[in-house]
Specification:
A hairpin with a 2-residue loop joins strand 9 and strand 10. It contains no helices and 11 strands. It is mostly beta strands and 111 residues long. The protein starts with a strand and ends with a strand. Strands 2, 4, 5, 6, 9, 10 and 11 form a 7-stranded mixed β-sheet that branches. The radius of gyration is 13 Å and the shape is globular.
């Protein structure tokens, strides 16, 4: 199993970023996918989840209305569109499938 995130970077408050996760090594369209983030202190929280077919999506309260998760089962990718970013969104963002994690992509939002 391999999960490779991309799309992180430095953005100003109110800006947008789109994260992408390329998955391989498993039957992608059979699994729920998730985006998590980890803060500098080490705490980690789930940001958004999407069911195997994209029909069910869930978001952390802190990102509802600003972030959108999506997937393309034909390309084995899952994305996280992040709009109206805030400094508190700064974290290392991970793609997750079950016990497997990507290496993370850093998002930094300047005030």
């Amino acid at each position: 199993v391999q999960l490779v995130e991309s799309g992180g970077g430095l953005v100003q408050t109110g800006g947008s970023l789109r994260l992408s996760c390329a998955a391989s090594g498993f039957t992608f369209d059979s699994h729920q996918m998730e985006w998590w983030r980890q803060y500098p202190g080490g705490s980690r929280e789930v940001v958004a989840t999407i069911s195997w077919n994209g029909a069910s999506k869930n978001y952390a309260d802190s990102v509802k209305g600003r972030f959108t998760i999506s997937r393309d089962n034909s390309k084995n990718t899952v994305a996280l569109q992040m709009d109206n970013l805030k400094p508190e969104d700064s974290a290392l963002y991970f793609c997750n499938m079950g016990l497997f994690w990507g290496q993370g992509t850093q998002v930094t939002v300047s005030s």
